[in-house]
Protein backbone atom coordinates (compact mmCIF):
# COMPACT_ATOMS: atom_id res chain seq x y z
CA UNK A 1 0.00 0.00 0.00
CA UNK A 2 2.61 2.53 0.99
CA UNK A 3 4.90 1.47 -1.83
CA UNK A 4 2.26 2.30 -4.43
CA UNK A 5 1.56 5.60 -2.77
CA UNK A 6 5.10 6.96 -2.97
CA UNK A 7 5.41 7.79 -6.69
CA UNK A 8 2.69 10.48 -6.77
CA UNK A 9 3.91 12.09 -3.56
CA UNK A 10 7.54 12.18 -4.68
CA UNK A 11 6.65 14.19 -7.76
CA UNK A 12 4.88 16.65 -5.52
CA UNK A 13 7.67 19.19 -5.44
CA UNK A 14 7.75 19.89 -9.20
CA UNK A 15 4.59 21.93 -9.89
CA UNK A 16 5.71 25.06 -8.08
CA UNK A 17 8.65 25.61 -10.37
CA UNK A 18 8.14 27.95 -13.32
CA UNK A 19 6.62 26.39 -16.37
CA UNK A 20 8.87 24.36 -18.62
CA UNK A 21 8.00 21.46 -20.88
CA UNK A 22 8.56 18.12 -19.19
CA UNK A 23 11.46 15.91 -20.10
CA UNK A 24 9.73 12.71 -21.17
CA UNK A 25 11.97 9.99 -19.83
CA UNK A 26 10.31 6.57 -19.98
CA UNK A 27 10.24 6.44 -16.21
CA UNK A 28 8.47 9.77 -15.89
CA UNK A 29 6.01 8.68 -18.55
CA UNK A 30 5.10 5.47 -16.75
CA UNK A 31 5.00 7.19 -13.43
CA UNK A 32 2.56 9.78 -14.73
CA UNK A 33 0.45 7.09 -16.40
CA UNK A 34 0.28 5.13 -13.19
CA UNK A 35 -0.60 8.32 -11.32
CA UNK A 36 -3.56 8.98 -13.61
CA UNK A 37 -4.83 5.43 -13.51
CA UNK A 38 -4.36 4.66 -9.83
CA UNK A 39 -5.09 7.98 -8.09
CA UNK A 40 -8.90 7.91 -8.47
CA UNK A 41 -8.99 4.53 -6.77
CA UNK A 42 -6.52 5.54 -4.08
CA UNK A 43 -8.68 8.53 -3.20
CA UNK A 44 -11.86 6.55 -2.78
CA UNK A 45 -10.12 3.60 -1.15
CA UNK A 46 -9.99 4.95 2.43
CA UNK A 47 -13.73 5.50 2.39
CA UNK A 48 -14.59 2.10 0.99
CA UNK A 49 -12.15 0.19 3.19
CA UNK A 50 -13.24 1.92 6.39
CA UNK A 51 -16.92 1.87 5.51
CA UNK A 52 -16.69 -1.81 4.70
CA UNK A 53 -15.00 -2.55 7.99
CA UNK A 54 -17.08 -0.48 10.39
CA UNK A 55 -20.33 0.01 8.45
CA UNK A 56 -21.16 -2.97 6.27
CA UNK A 57 -19.26 -5.82 7.87
CA UNK A 58 -21.03 -5.40 11.24
CA UNK A 59 -24.41 -5.42 9.51
CA UNK A 60 -23.61 -8.60 7.60
CA UNK A 61 -22.12 -10.22 10.67
CA UNK A 62 -25.24 -9.30 12.65
CA UNK A 63 -27.06 -11.65 10.31
CA UNK A 64 -24.58 -14.44 11.06
CA UNK A 65 -25.03 -13.90 14.80
CA UNK A 66 -28.82 -13.94 14.38
CA UNK A 67 -28.66 -17.48 13.00
CA UNK A 68 -26.99 -18.77 16.14
CA UNK A 69 -27.69 -19.28 19.78
CA UNK A 70 -25.29 -16.64 21.05
CA UNK A 71 -24.67 -15.30 24.53
CA UNK A 72 -22.85 -12.05 25.34
CA UNK A 73 -20.45 -13.78 27.72
CA UNK A 74 -20.23 -17.41 26.61
CA UNK A 75 -20.27 -16.74 22.87
CA UNK A 76 -21.81 -18.85 20.11
CA UNK A 77 -23.59 -22.05 21.16
CA UNK A 78 -24.76 -23.66 17.97
CA UNK A 79 -26.47 -22.88 14.68
CA UNK A 80 -30.24 -22.57 15.01
CA UNK A 81 -31.27 -21.36 11.57
CA UNK A 82 -34.18 -18.93 11.62
CA UNK A 83 -35.33 -19.93 15.11
CA UNK A 84 -34.43 -16.55 16.58
CA UNK A 85 -36.58 -14.82 13.97
CA UNK A 86 -39.50 -17.13 14.65
CA UNK A 87 -39.12 -16.55 18.38
CA UNK A 88 -39.08 -12.78 17.95
CA UNK A 89 -41.97 -12.69 15.50
CA UNK A 90 -44.09 -14.51 18.05
CA UNK A 91 -42.86 -12.48 21.02
CA UNK A 92 -45.45 -9.94 22.21
CA UNK A 93 -42.64 -7.72 23.56
CA UNK A 94 -41.20 -7.38 20.07
CA UNK A 95 -44.57 -6.35 18.64
CA UNK A 96 -45.10 -4.04 21.59
CA UNK A 97 -41.81 -2.31 20.83
CA UNK A 98 -42.71 -2.00 17.16
CA UNK A 99 -46.11 -0.54 18.05
CA UNK A 100 -44.47 1.98 20.37
CA UNK A 101 -41.90 2.94 17.75
CA UNK A 102 -44.47 3.51 15.03
CA UNK A 103 -46.83 5.32 17.39
CA UNK A 104 -44.10 7.71 18.59
CA UNK A 105 -42.93 8.13 15.02
CA UNK A 106 -46.39 9.11 13.77
CA UNK A 107 -46.96 11.44 16.72
CA UNK A 108 -43.71 13.19 15.90
CA UNK A 109 -43.58 13.09 12.10
CA UNK A 110 -47.03 14.52 11.39
CA UNK A 111 -47.07 17.51 13.78
CA UNK A 112 -43.45 18.15 12.87
CA UNK A 113 -44.22 18.40 9.18
CA UNK A 114 -47.24 20.65 9.74
CA UNK A 115 -45.28 22.84 12.14
CA UNK A 116 -42.28 23.03 9.83
CA UNK A 117 -44.44 24.07 6.87
CA UNK A 118 -46.09 26.76 8.99
CA UNK A 119 -42.77 28.12 10.26
CA UNK A 120 -41.28 28.01 6.78
CA UNK A 121 -44.29 29.87 5.35
CA UNK A 122 -43.90 32.62 7.96
CA UNK A 123 -40.15 32.86 7.34
CA UNK A 124 -40.69 32.91 3.57
CA UNK A 125 -42.25 36.38 3.76
CA UNK A 126 -40.31 39.54 3.25
CA UNK A 127 -39.53 39.95 6.95
CA UNK A 128 -37.00 42.21 8.61
CA UNK A 129 -33.91 40.66 10.28
CA UNK A 130 -34.24 37.45 8.24
CA UNK A 131 -31.02 35.89 9.49
CA UNK A 132 -31.93 36.47 13.11
CA UNK A 133 -35.32 34.76 12.82
CA UNK A 134 -33.92 31.90 10.79
CA UNK A 135 -31.24 31.32 13.38
CA UNK A 136 -33.74 31.55 16.22
CA UNK A 137 -35.76 28.57 14.99
CA UNK A 138 -32.57 26.51 14.95
CA UNK A 139 -31.72 26.99 18.63
CA UNK A 140 -33.41 23.75 19.79
CA UNK A 141 -31.25 21.86 17.30
CA UNK A 142 -28.06 22.68 19.21
CA UNK A 143 -29.44 21.23 22.43
CA UNK A 144 -28.32 17.59 22.41
CA UNK A 145 -30.97 14.83 22.59
CA UNK A 146 -29.69 13.82 26.03
CA UNK A 147 -30.10 17.37 27.34
CA UNK A 148 -33.51 17.69 25.65
CA UNK A 149 -34.65 14.47 27.28
CA UNK A 150 -33.45 15.54 30.73
CA UNK A 151 -35.20 18.89 30.40
CA UNK A 152 -38.48 17.43 29.13
CA UNK A 153 -38.31 14.49 31.50
CA UNK A 154 -38.25 16.96 34.37
CA UNK A 155 -41.08 19.01 32.86
CA UNK A 156 -43.20 15.86 32.42
CA UNK A 157 -42.54 14.62 35.94
CA UNK A 158 -45.80 13.26 37.33
CA UNK A 159 -45.63 14.78 40.81
CA UNK A 160 -43.63 17.97 40.55
CA UNK A 161 -43.29 18.51 36.83
CA UNK A 162 -43.81 21.90 35.27
CA UNK A 163 -46.60 20.69 33.01
CA UNK A 164 -48.67 18.93 35.65
CA UNK A 165 -48.22 21.94 37.94
CA UNK A 166 -49.65 24.19 35.28
CA UNK A 167 -52.47 21.74 34.53
CA UNK A 168 -53.40 21.64 38.20
CA UNK A 169 -53.48 25.42 38.41
CA UNK A 170 -55.96 25.33 35.55
CA UNK A 171 -57.83 22.69 37.61
CA UNK A 172 -57.20 19.94 35.10
CA UNK A 173 -56.30 16.51 36.44
CA UNK A 174 -52.59 15.73 36.28
CA UNK A 175 -51.60 13.40 33.45
CA UNK A 176 -49.57 10.26 34.16
CA UNK A 177 -46.93 11.08 31.57
CA UNK A 178 -44.56 8.33 32.57
CA UNK A 179 -46.90 5.45 33.26
CA UNK A 180 -49.69 5.65 30.68
CA UNK A 181 -49.04 4.60 27.11
CA UNK A 182 -50.47 7.43 25.03
CA UNK A 183 -49.32 10.29 27.31
CA UNK A 184 -45.80 8.86 27.40
CA UNK A 185 -45.74 8.61 23.62
CA UNK A 186 -46.93 12.21 23.38
CA UNK A 187 -44.23 13.33 25.80
CA UNK A 188 -41.47 11.55 23.88
CA UNK A 189 -42.78 12.78 20.54
CA UNK A 190 -42.79 16.33 21.89
CA UNK A 191 -39.03 16.07 22.55
CA UNK A 192 -38.38 15.01 18.98
CA UNK A 193 -40.69 17.70 17.67
CA UNK A 194 -39.10 20.41 19.73
CA UNK A 195 -35.61 19.61 18.52
CA UNK A 196 -36.32 18.99 14.83
CA UNK A 197 -39.22 21.20 13.70
CA UNK A 198 -37.10 24.31 13.20
CA UNK A 199 -34.42 22.36 11.39
CA UNK A 200 -36.96 20.92 8.96
CA UNK A 201 -38.58 24.34 8.58
CA UNK A 202 -35.29 25.66 7.19
CA UNK A 203 -35.12 22.83 4.65
CA UNK A 204 -38.68 23.59 3.53
CA UNK A 205 -37.93 27.31 3.51
CA UNK A 206 -35.12 26.68 1.02
CA UNK A 207 -37.56 24.81 -1.19
CA UNK A 208 -40.13 27.61 -0.94
CA UNK A 209 -37.56 30.19 -1.96
CA UNK A 210 -36.73 28.15 -5.04
CA UNK A 211 -40.29 28.71 -6.34
CA UNK A 212 -40.05 31.47 -8.98
CA UNK A 213 -41.53 34.70 -7.69
CA UNK A 214 -43.16 35.65 -11.00
CA UNK A 215 -45.52 32.67 -10.75
CA UNK A 216 -46.87 34.20 -7.55
CA UNK A 217 -47.16 37.57 -9.19
CA UNK A 218 -49.18 36.30 -12.11
CA UNK A 219 -51.40 34.34 -9.72
CA UNK A 220 -51.90 37.51 -7.71
CA UNK A 221 -52.81 39.33 -10.92
CA UNK A 222 -55.37 36.61 -11.58
CA UNK A 223 -56.89 37.36 -8.20
CA UNK A 224 -55.57 34.50 -6.07
CA UNK A 225 -55.25 35.56 -2.45
CA UNK A 226 -52.32 34.59 -0.22
CA UNK A 227 -54.13 31.60 1.28
CA UNK A 228 -55.13 30.30 -2.13
CA UNK A 229 -51.61 30.86 -3.46
CA UNK A 230 -50.15 28.97 -0.50
CA UNK A 231 -52.36 25.91 -0.92
CA UNK A 232 -52.43 25.65 -4.68
CA UNK A 233 -48.92 26.84 -5.52
CA UNK A 234 -46.48 26.79 -2.61
CA UNK A 235 -47.49 23.42 -1.16
CA UNK A 236 -47.43 21.50 -4.46
CA UNK A 237 -44.04 22.97 -5.38
CA UNK A 238 -42.37 21.94 -2.14
CA UNK A 239 -43.89 18.46 -2.04
CA UNK A 240 -40.69 16.69 -3.15
CA UNK A 241 -38.81 18.38 -0.32
CA UNK A 242 -41.55 17.45 2.12
CA UNK A 243 -41.09 13.85 1.09
CA UNK A 244 -37.35 14.19 1.59
CA UNK A 245 -38.03 15.46 5.11
CA UNK A 246 -40.38 12.56 5.78
CA UNK A 247 -37.80 10.02 4.59
CA UNK A 248 -35.08 11.39 6.87
CA UNK A 249 -37.56 11.54 9.73
CA UNK A 250 -38.50 7.91 9.09
CA UNK A 251 -34.97 6.55 9.10
CA UNK A 252 -34.19 8.49 12.29
CA UNK A 253 -37.58 7.99 13.93
CA UNK A 254 -37.61 4.22 13.61
CA UNK A 255 -34.25 4.10 15.41
CA UNK A 256 -35.25 6.34 18.32
CA UNK A 257 -33.31 5.42 21.46
CA UNK A 258 -32.06 8.28 23.61
CA UNK A 259 -35.43 9.81 24.46
CA UNK A 260 -37.20 6.63 25.68
CA UNK A 261 -33.98 5.41 27.34
CA UNK A 262 -33.64 8.48 29.56
CA UNK A 263 -37.28 9.44 29.95
CA UNK A 264 -37.65 7.70 33.29
CA UNK A 265 -34.41 6.33 34.77
CA UNK A 266 -36.04 4.92 37.88
CA UNK A 267 -37.71 1.96 36.19
CA UNK A 268 -36.00 -1.43 36.10
CA UNK A 269 -36.92 -2.27 32.50
CA UNK A 270 -35.82 0.41 30.07
CA UNK A 271 -38.87 1.94 28.43
CA UNK A 272 -41.35 2.11 31.29
CA UNK A 273 -42.43 -0.24 34.07
CA UNK A 274 -44.70 -2.15 31.65
CA UNK A 275 -42.68 -1.28 28.54
CA UNK A 276 -45.20 1.45 27.72
CA UNK A 277 -42.69 3.35 25.62
CA UNK A 278 -40.04 0.73 24.95
CA UNK A 279 -39.05 1.31 21.34
CA UNK A 280 -37.50 -1.35 19.13
CA UNK A 281 -33.90 -0.15 19.45
CA UNK A 282 -34.37 0.05 23.21
CA UNK A 283 -35.80 -3.48 23.19
CA UNK A 284 -32.79 -4.59 21.15
CA UNK A 285 -30.49 -2.94 23.69
CA UNK A 286 -32.24 -4.60 26.60
CA UNK A 287 -32.16 -7.98 24.89
CA UNK A 288 -28.47 -7.75 23.95
CA UNK A 289 -26.84 -6.05 26.90
CA UNK A 290 -29.14 -6.69 29.86
CA UNK A 291 -30.43 -10.15 28.99
CA UNK A 292 -27.22 -10.95 27.07
CA UNK A 293 -29.03 -12.73 24.26
CA UNK A 294 -26.99 -11.66 21.25
CA UNK A 295 -28.68 -14.13 18.89
CA UNK A 296 -32.20 -12.82 19.42
CA UNK A 297 -31.06 -9.21 19.59
CA UNK A 298 -29.35 -9.62 16.22
CA UNK A 299 -32.55 -11.05 14.78
CA UNK A 300 -34.37 -7.95 16.05
CA UNK A 301 -31.70 -5.73 14.46
CA UNK A 302 -32.21 -7.41 11.11
CA UNK A 303 -36.00 -7.27 11.31
CA UNK A 304 -35.78 -3.56 12.06
CA UNK A 305 -33.26 -3.15 9.25
CA UNK A 306 -35.69 -4.75 6.81
CA UNK A 307 -38.54 -2.57 8.05
CA UNK A 308 -36.46 0.58 7.59
CA UNK A 309 -35.41 -0.48 4.08
CA UNK A 310 -39.04 -1.27 3.27
CA UNK A 311 -40.15 2.19 4.45
CA UNK A 312 -37.32 3.73 2.45
CA UNK A 313 -38.25 1.94 -0.77
CA UNK A 314 -41.92 2.79 -0.29
CA UNK A 315 -41.10 6.45 0.27
CA UNK A 316 -38.87 6.46 -2.76
CA UNK A 317 -41.55 4.97 -5.01
CA UNK A 318 -44.20 7.35 -3.76
CA UNK A 319 -41.94 10.36 -4.12
CA UNK A 320 -40.98 9.39 -7.67
CA UNK A 321 -44.62 9.15 -8.65
CA UNK A 322 -45.53 12.43 -7.03
CA UNK A 323 -42.48 14.17 -8.45
CA UNK A 324 -43.34 13.16 -12.00
CA UNK A 325 -47.00 14.14 -11.60
CA UNK A 326 -45.86 17.39 -10.01
CA UNK A 327 -43.48 18.41 -12.76
CA UNK A 328 -46.16 17.77 -15.37
CA UNK A 329 -48.59 19.87 -13.33
CA UNK A 330 -46.17 22.77 -13.03
CA UNK A 331 -45.29 22.61 -16.71
CA UNK A 332 -48.99 22.71 -17.62
CA UNK A 333 -49.56 25.71 -15.39
CA UNK A 334 -46.62 27.53 -16.89
CA UNK A 335 -47.95 26.89 -20.40
CA UNK A 336 -51.38 28.18 -19.41
CA UNK A 337 -49.86 31.32 -17.96
CA UNK A 338 -47.84 31.83 -21.09
CA UNK A 339 -50.94 31.59 -23.28
CA UNK A 340 -52.90 34.00 -21.16
CA UNK A 341 -50.35 36.78 -21.23
CA UNK B 1 -62.42 28.36 7.77
CA UNK B 2 -60.19 29.03 4.81
CA UNK B 3 -63.08 29.62 2.45
CA UNK B 4 -64.42 32.42 4.60
CA UNK B 5 -61.09 34.18 5.14
CA UNK B 6 -59.66 33.79 1.66
CA UNK B 7 -61.74 36.33 -0.30
CA UNK B 8 -61.12 39.24 2.05
CA UNK B 9 -57.36 39.63 1.51
CA UNK B 10 -57.86 38.85 -2.18
CA UNK B 11 -59.79 42.08 -2.56
CA UNK B 12 -57.02 44.21 -1.10
CA UNK B 13 -54.53 42.19 -3.11
CA UNK B 14 -56.22 43.07 -6.35
CA UNK B 15 -55.68 46.73 -5.79
CA UNK B 16 -51.97 46.13 -5.30
CA UNK B 17 -51.34 43.10 -7.49
CA UNK B 18 -47.56 43.17 -7.47
CA UNK B 19 -47.29 43.65 -3.72
CA UNK B 20 -46.56 40.03 -2.92
CA UNK B 21 -43.19 40.94 -1.45
CA UNK B 22 -44.43 43.79 0.71
CA UNK B 23 -43.49 43.93 4.38
CA UNK B 24 -45.72 41.62 6.42
CA UNK B 25 -47.80 42.79 9.34
CA UNK B 26 -47.97 42.19 13.07
CA UNK B 27 -49.40 38.70 12.71
CA UNK B 28 -46.17 37.49 11.14
CA UNK B 29 -43.94 39.00 13.80
CA UNK B 30 -46.30 37.74 16.49
CA UNK B 31 -45.92 34.21 15.15
CA UNK B 32 -42.15 34.60 14.91
CA UNK B 33 -42.03 35.65 18.55
CA UNK B 34 -44.17 32.64 19.48
CA UNK B 35 -41.72 30.33 17.66
CA UNK B 36 -38.81 32.04 19.34
CA UNK B 37 -40.31 31.63 22.81
CA UNK B 38 -41.27 28.00 22.15
CA UNK B 39 -37.74 27.30 20.99
CA UNK B 40 -35.94 28.99 23.83
CA UNK B 41 -38.25 28.69 26.84
CA UNK B 42 -37.33 25.08 27.74
CA UNK B 43 -33.67 26.11 27.78
CA UNK B 44 -34.38 29.24 29.78
CA UNK B 45 -36.50 27.30 32.19
CA UNK B 46 -33.76 24.75 32.80
CA UNK B 47 -31.38 27.64 33.40
CA UNK B 48 -33.75 28.99 36.05
CA UNK B 49 -34.13 25.58 37.60
CA UNK B 50 -30.36 25.17 37.51
CA UNK B 51 -29.87 28.38 39.46
CA UNK B 52 -32.44 27.57 42.11
CA UNK B 53 -32.85 25.04 44.89
CA UNK B 54 -34.91 22.03 43.85
CA UNK B 55 -37.88 23.21 45.94
CA UNK B 56 -38.55 25.78 43.21
CA UNK B 57 -39.59 23.00 40.86
CA UNK B 58 -42.57 22.11 43.03
CA UNK B 59 -44.04 25.60 42.95
CA UNK B 60 -47.25 25.94 41.04
CA UNK B 61 -46.13 28.67 38.68
CA UNK B 62 -42.55 28.49 37.53
CA UNK B 63 -40.43 31.49 38.53
CA UNK B 64 -39.31 33.78 35.73
CA UNK B 65 -36.02 34.94 37.23
CA UNK B 66 -32.96 32.89 38.08
CA UNK B 67 -32.13 32.13 41.70
CA UNK B 68 -28.76 32.39 43.39
CA UNK B 69 -27.70 28.77 43.62
CA UNK B 70 -26.04 28.33 40.25
CA UNK B 71 -22.48 27.79 41.47
CA UNK B 72 -23.60 25.51 44.27
CA UNK B 73 -25.48 23.35 41.71
CA UNK B 74 -22.51 23.44 39.36
CA UNK B 75 -20.32 22.16 42.17
CA UNK B 76 -22.81 19.38 42.78
CA UNK B 77 -22.69 18.40 39.10
CA UNK B 78 -18.89 18.32 39.19
CA UNK B 79 -18.98 16.12 42.29
CA UNK B 80 -21.40 13.63 40.77
CA UNK B 81 -19.84 13.14 37.34
CA UNK B 82 -16.35 13.72 35.86
CA UNK B 83 -17.47 16.82 34.00
CA UNK B 84 -14.11 18.15 32.78
CA UNK B 85 -12.79 14.74 31.75
CA UNK B 86 -15.94 14.00 29.81
CA UNK B 87 -15.86 17.43 28.18
CA UNK B 88 -12.28 16.79 27.08
CA UNK B 89 -13.24 13.31 25.86
CA UNK B 90 -16.06 14.75 23.79
CA UNK B 91 -13.79 17.39 22.29
CA UNK B 92 -11.19 14.77 21.33
CA UNK B 93 -13.72 12.31 19.94
CA UNK B 94 -15.68 14.89 17.92
CA UNK B 95 -12.53 16.57 16.57
CA UNK B 96 -10.88 13.37 15.40
CA UNK B 97 -14.09 12.16 13.76
CA UNK B 98 -14.59 15.54 12.08
CA UNK B 99 -11.07 15.67 10.64
CA UNK B 100 -11.31 12.10 9.40
CA UNK B 101 -14.76 12.41 7.85
CA UNK B 102 -13.96 15.71 6.15
CA UNK B 103 -10.60 14.51 4.82
CA UNK B 104 -11.78 11.18 3.44
CA UNK B 105 -15.06 12.60 2.14
CA UNK B 106 -13.26 15.37 0.29
CA UNK B 107 -10.79 12.92 -1.24
CA UNK B 108 -13.47 10.47 -2.34
CA UNK B 109 -15.93 13.19 -3.32
CA UNK B 110 -13.30 14.88 -5.50
CA UNK B 111 -12.47 11.59 -7.15
CA UNK B 112 -16.14 10.84 -7.87
CA UNK B 113 -16.85 14.36 -9.10
CA UNK B 114 -13.82 15.16 -11.19
CA UNK B 115 -11.69 12.13 -12.05
CA UNK B 116 -12.50 9.57 -14.69
CA UNK B 117 -12.07 5.93 -13.84
CA UNK B 118 -13.67 2.65 -14.65
CA UNK B 119 -16.54 1.67 -12.35
CA UNK B 120 -17.17 5.24 -11.19
CA UNK B 121 -20.93 5.28 -11.81
CA UNK B 122 -21.46 1.90 -10.19
CA UNK B 123 -19.47 2.81 -7.08
CA UNK B 124 -21.30 6.11 -6.77
CA UNK B 125 -24.64 4.32 -6.91
CA UNK B 126 -23.34 2.10 -4.13
CA UNK B 127 -22.48 5.15 -2.00
CA UNK B 128 -25.96 6.61 -2.57
CA UNK B 129 -27.60 3.30 -1.74
CA UNK B 130 -25.73 3.12 1.57
CA UNK B 131 -26.87 6.63 2.53
CA UNK B 132 -30.04 5.28 4.07
CA UNK B 133 -28.50 2.17 5.62
CA UNK B 134 -28.96 2.30 9.38
CA UNK B 135 -25.40 1.37 10.39
CA UNK B 136 -26.43 1.84 14.02
CA UNK B 137 -28.00 -1.61 13.82
CA UNK B 138 -24.54 -3.22 13.54
CA UNK B 139 -23.69 -2.44 17.18
CA UNK B 140 -23.65 -6.06 18.32
CA UNK B 141 -20.71 -7.28 16.19
CA UNK B 142 -18.98 -3.92 16.64
CA UNK B 143 -19.23 -4.34 20.36
CA UNK B 144 -17.90 -7.90 20.16
CA UNK B 145 -14.93 -6.71 18.10
CA UNK B 146 -14.15 -3.87 20.49
CA UNK B 147 -14.26 -6.28 23.38
CA UNK B 148 -12.04 -8.74 21.54
CA UNK B 149 -9.44 -6.04 20.90
CA UNK B 150 -9.73 -4.78 24.47
CA UNK B 151 -10.74 -1.35 23.21
CA UNK B 152 -13.82 -0.92 25.38
CA UNK B 153 -13.27 1.97 27.73
CA UNK B 154 -10.94 3.76 25.33
CA UNK B 155 -11.84 6.70 23.14
CA UNK B 156 -10.67 4.76 20.08
CA UNK B 157 -13.72 2.52 20.44
CA UNK B 158 -15.98 5.59 20.18
CA UNK B 159 -14.10 7.10 17.26
CA UNK B 160 -13.46 4.18 14.91
CA UNK B 161 -17.04 3.30 13.86
CA UNK B 162 -17.72 6.81 12.51
CA UNK B 163 -14.43 7.60 10.78
CA UNK B 164 -16.23 7.81 7.43
CA UNK B 165 -19.82 8.44 6.35
CA UNK B 166 -21.50 7.81 3.02
CA UNK B 167 -23.32 11.10 3.46
CA UNK B 168 -20.04 13.02 3.58
CA UNK B 169 -18.81 11.50 0.32
CA UNK B 170 -22.10 12.18 -1.43
CA UNK B 171 -22.26 15.73 -0.08
CA UNK B 172 -18.73 16.59 -1.25
CA UNK B 173 -19.30 14.98 -4.62
CA UNK B 174 -22.48 17.00 -5.20
CA UNK B 175 -20.70 20.18 -4.28
CA UNK B 176 -17.48 19.64 -6.23
CA UNK B 177 -19.12 18.44 -9.43
CA UNK B 178 -20.36 21.97 -10.10
CA UNK B 179 -17.72 24.22 -8.60
CA UNK B 180 -14.53 22.97 -10.23
CA UNK B 181 -14.34 23.51 -13.99
CA UNK B 182 -12.72 20.56 -15.75
CA UNK B 183 -10.43 22.96 -17.61
CA UNK B 184 -8.83 24.01 -14.35
CA UNK B 185 -7.82 20.44 -13.56
CA UNK B 186 -6.60 19.90 -17.11
CA UNK B 187 -4.55 23.09 -16.95
CA UNK B 188 -2.88 21.97 -13.74
CA UNK B 189 -2.14 18.59 -15.29
CA UNK B 190 -0.68 20.16 -18.43
CA UNK B 191 1.57 22.25 -16.21
CA UNK B 192 2.96 18.99 -14.93
CA UNK B 193 1.22 18.79 -11.56
CA UNK B 194 0.75 15.28 -10.21
CA UNK B 195 -2.75 14.07 -9.36
CA UNK B 196 -2.23 14.60 -5.66
CA UNK B 197 -0.81 18.05 -6.21
CA UNK B 198 -3.78 18.92 -8.43
CA UNK B 199 -6.11 17.79 -5.68
CA UNK B 200 -4.20 19.86 -3.16
CA UNK B 201 -3.94 23.06 -5.19
CA UNK B 202 -7.22 22.94 -7.13
CA UNK B 203 -9.56 20.57 -5.29
CA UNK B 204 -9.05 21.65 -1.69
CA UNK B 205 -9.35 25.43 -2.23
CA UNK B 206 -12.57 24.92 -4.19
CA UNK B 207 -13.94 22.50 -1.63
CA UNK B 208 -13.24 24.67 1.40
CA UNK B 209 -16.78 26.09 1.95
CA UNK B 210 -18.37 22.66 1.69
CA UNK B 211 -15.68 21.20 3.94
CA UNK B 212 -16.55 23.77 6.59
CA UNK B 213 -20.24 22.90 6.47
CA UNK B 214 -19.61 19.16 6.46
CA UNK B 215 -17.21 19.64 9.37
CA UNK B 216 -19.80 21.57 11.37
CA UNK B 217 -22.48 18.94 10.95
CA UNK B 218 -20.12 16.03 11.53
CA UNK B 219 -18.92 17.65 14.73
CA UNK B 220 -22.51 18.16 15.91
CA UNK B 221 -23.47 14.59 15.11
CA UNK B 222 -20.44 13.16 16.89
CA UNK B 223 -21.00 15.45 19.86
CA UNK B 224 -24.65 14.44 20.28
CA UNK B 225 -24.14 10.71 19.80
CA UNK B 226 -25.29 8.75 22.83
CA UNK B 227 -26.07 5.07 22.17
CA UNK B 228 -22.61 3.92 21.08
CA UNK B 229 -20.52 5.85 23.66
CA UNK B 230 -22.90 4.66 26.38
CA UNK B 231 -22.12 1.12 25.32
CA UNK B 232 -18.34 1.27 25.03
CA UNK B 233 -17.19 3.98 27.45
CA UNK B 234 -19.57 4.14 30.42
CA UNK B 235 -16.59 4.41 32.81
CA UNK B 236 -14.66 6.92 30.73
CA UNK B 237 -17.68 8.90 29.52
CA UNK B 238 -18.19 11.44 26.81
CA UNK B 239 -20.14 14.51 27.85
CA UNK B 240 -23.51 13.06 26.80
CA UNK B 241 -22.92 9.86 28.75
CA UNK B 242 -21.76 11.76 31.83
CA UNK B 243 -24.81 14.00 31.57
CA UNK B 244 -27.15 11.03 31.45
CA UNK B 245 -25.47 9.57 34.53
CA UNK B 246 -26.67 12.58 36.51
CA UNK B 247 -30.13 11.10 36.69
CA UNK B 248 -29.33 7.42 36.91
CA UNK B 249 -29.83 7.36 40.68
CA UNK B 250 -33.05 6.20 42.34
CA UNK B 251 -33.81 9.70 43.50
CA UNK B 252 -33.51 12.32 40.79
CA UNK B 253 -32.61 15.85 41.86
CA UNK B 254 -33.84 17.77 38.87
CA UNK B 255 -32.18 21.08 39.66
CA UNK B 256 -28.78 19.32 39.53
CA UNK B 257 -29.78 17.44 36.37
CA UNK B 258 -30.93 20.65 34.70
CA UNK B 259 -27.76 22.47 35.73
CA UNK B 260 -25.90 19.68 33.97
CA UNK B 261 -28.11 20.03 30.90
CA UNK B 262 -27.37 23.75 30.77
CA UNK B 263 -23.62 23.21 31.21
CA UNK B 264 -23.56 20.54 28.52
CA UNK B 265 -25.46 22.80 26.13
CA UNK B 266 -23.05 25.72 26.52
CA UNK B 267 -20.33 24.42 24.15
CA UNK B 268 -22.77 23.91 21.29
CA UNK B 269 -24.49 27.19 22.10
CA UNK B 270 -21.09 28.85 21.75
CA UNK B 271 -20.60 27.08 18.43
CA UNK B 272 -24.05 28.31 17.43
CA UNK B 273 -23.18 31.91 18.22
CA UNK B 274 -19.97 31.63 16.19
CA UNK B 275 -21.25 29.58 13.26
CA UNK B 276 -25.06 29.74 13.41
CA UNK B 277 -25.23 31.53 10.05
CA UNK B 278 -23.21 28.75 8.43
CA UNK B 279 -25.45 26.14 10.04
CA UNK B 280 -28.54 27.83 8.62
CA UNK B 281 -27.08 28.19 5.13
CA UNK B 282 -25.72 24.64 5.31
CA UNK B 283 -29.16 23.20 6.06
CA UNK B 284 -30.74 25.31 3.35
CA UNK B 285 -28.09 24.44 0.78
CA UNK B 286 -28.34 20.73 1.55
CA UNK B 287 -32.07 20.91 0.97
CA UNK B 288 -31.77 22.34 -2.51
CA UNK B 289 -29.18 19.73 -3.50
CA UNK B 290 -30.99 16.82 -1.89
UniProtKB/TrEMBL annotation, chain A:
It is a multi-pass membrane protein. It comes from the Bacteria. Residues 1-20 are annotated as: Disordered. InterPro entries: ABC_transporter_permease, MetI-like, MetI-like_sf. Residues 1-13 have a biased composition (Low complexity). The chain crosses the membrane at residues 41-64, 102-123, 135-156, 196-216, 237-257, 299-318. Gene3D superfamilies: MetI-like. Keywords: Cell membrane, Membrane, Transmembrane, Transmembrane helix, Transport. Its main location: membrane. Residues 98-315 form the ABC transmembrane type-1 domain. It is found in: Cell membrane. The keyword Plastid does not apply. Belongs to the binding-protein-dependent transport system permease family. This is Sugar ABC transporter permease. It comes from Herbiconiux gentiana. The lineage of its organism: Bacteria, Bacillati, Actinomycetota, Actinomycetes, Micrococcales.
Automatic annotation (TrEMBL), chain B:
The keyword Membrane applies. The chain crosses the membrane at residues 26-47, 87-110, 122-143, 149-171, 210-231, 251-274. Pfam families: BPD_transp_1 (PF00528). Residues 87-275 form the ABC transmembrane type-1 domain. It is found in: Cell membrane. It is a multi-pass membrane protein. InterPro entries: MetI-like, MetI-like_sf. Belongs to the binding-protein-dependent transport system permease family. This is Carbohydrate ABC transporter permease.
